[in-house]
């Protein structure tokens, strides 16, 4: 199966052919797949070199000129390094654009901590007006990319990852999807962690919801899944643990509830290892998730250890 990032350049190149308002801004990373599109549209595929602050500033300048800019590099260089430019050039000026990251939390683990960005969504959460899309499959990435680029002048962050679920689901860029129904709690799986969550909750009497759109958070969808009684909710996110616990708490403010946020821990792992090793180290593999989810919800399969 190709990766989400494999889909990115072909999809956006087709959009460049279709929509003269769209422009792509790169900072050296990801340039090669766009060389043919750059030949066709030399004024709308722009490489600023390894200058991430300029990447964001140039994108905002294109937005000021009425264009729909698409900015791309690794998440640590797109959100964290030029955060002031994201905050001021887009947010303070009220401009729209699409930030598309690669690398996720630790996809480029061999690059060291400079190439890891588990805090990107939490950081954007400090700003107003950003939608955040976290696809879990290349087909979903294609759908969400097209929606993001075609979303008028909104500010959208699309987080791509090499981690992916086996099958795509019919995501709509707005709502939580109910994948499994149960009575003893609700588990929300975000993006590429759905397969791990489904394996972890196999046989447990819990509902599993799937989220690819995490901002704005589908509060109404969570409320419907929980119902009117007391609720226990577990959020499993592929970035900083607890990033969406506040949103879930707000959604359930008038219902007695408990929320557990699982995700990437704050402790820096200095033995960088592989993606799978990072998944296990942060307790996001199926076996670890099963233990943590069943312990919090106090559920299990009769005769089977939790």
The strand line-up of the biggest sheet is 2-1-3-4-6-5-10
Largest sheet: 7 strands, mixed
Element order: H for helix, E for strand: HEHEHEHHEHEHEEEHEEHEHEHH
CATH architecture of the largest domain: 3-Layer(aba) Sandwich
Overall geometry: globular
Percent helix range = 25-40%
What is the β-strand count? Answer: 12
The fraction of residues assigned to DSSP E strands is 15-25%
Q: Please, what is the average pLDDT?
A: 95
Q: Quickly name the level 1 CATH class of the largest domain.
A: Alpha Beta
**Count of helical regions:** 12
Structural class by SSE content: alpha/beta
What assembly state would you assign to the polypeptide chains in this entry?
single chain
Low-confidence stretches: 302-306
Q: Can you say what the CATH homologous superfamily of the largest domain is?
A: Thiamin diphosphate (ThDP)-binding fold, Pyr/PP domains
- Domains counted in the coordinates: how many? 2
Pfam families: Transket_pyr
Domain Transketolase-like pyrimidine-binding: 2-167
Protein name: Transketolase
Organism: Streptomyces tabacisoli
């Amino acid at each position: 199966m190709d990766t989400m990032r494999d889909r990115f350049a072909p999809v956006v190149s087709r959009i460049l052919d279709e929509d003269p308002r769209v422009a792509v801004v790169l900072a050296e990373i990801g340039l090669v797949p766009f060389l043919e599109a750059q030949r066709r549209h030399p004024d709308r595929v722009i490489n600023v070199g390894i200058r991430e602050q300029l990447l964001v500033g140039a994108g905002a300048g294109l937005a000021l000129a009425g264009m729909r800019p698409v900015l791309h590099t690794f998440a640590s260089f797109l959100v964290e390094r030029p955060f002031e430019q994201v905050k001021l050039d887009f947010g303070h000026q009220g401009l729209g654009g699409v930030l598309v990251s690669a690398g996720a939390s630790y996809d480029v683990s061999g690059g060291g901590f400079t190439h890891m960005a588990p805090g990107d969504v939490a950081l954007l959460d400090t700003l107003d007006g950003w939608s955040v899309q976290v696809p879990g499959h290349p087909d979903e990435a294609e759908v969400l990319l097209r929606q993001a680029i075609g979303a008028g002048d909104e500010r959208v962050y699309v987080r791509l990852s090499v981690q992916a679920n086996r099958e795509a689901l019919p995501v709509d860029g707005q709502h939580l999807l109910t994948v499994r129904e149960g009575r003893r709690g609700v588990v929300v799986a975000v993006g590429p962690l759905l397969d791990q969550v489904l394996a972890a909750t196999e046989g447990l009497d819990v509902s599993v919801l799937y989220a690819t759109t995490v901002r704005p958070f589908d509060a109404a969808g969570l409320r419907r899944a929980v119902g009117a009684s007391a609720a226990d909710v577990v959020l499993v996110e592929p970035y900083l643990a607890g990033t969406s616990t506040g949103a879930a708490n707000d959604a359930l403010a008038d219902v007695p509830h408990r929320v557990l946020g699982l995700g990437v821990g704050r402790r820096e792992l200095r033995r960088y290892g592989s993606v799978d090793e990072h998944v296990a180290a942060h307790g996001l593999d199926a076996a670890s998730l099963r233990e943590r989810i069943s312990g919090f919800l106090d559920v299990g399969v009769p005769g089977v250890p939790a």
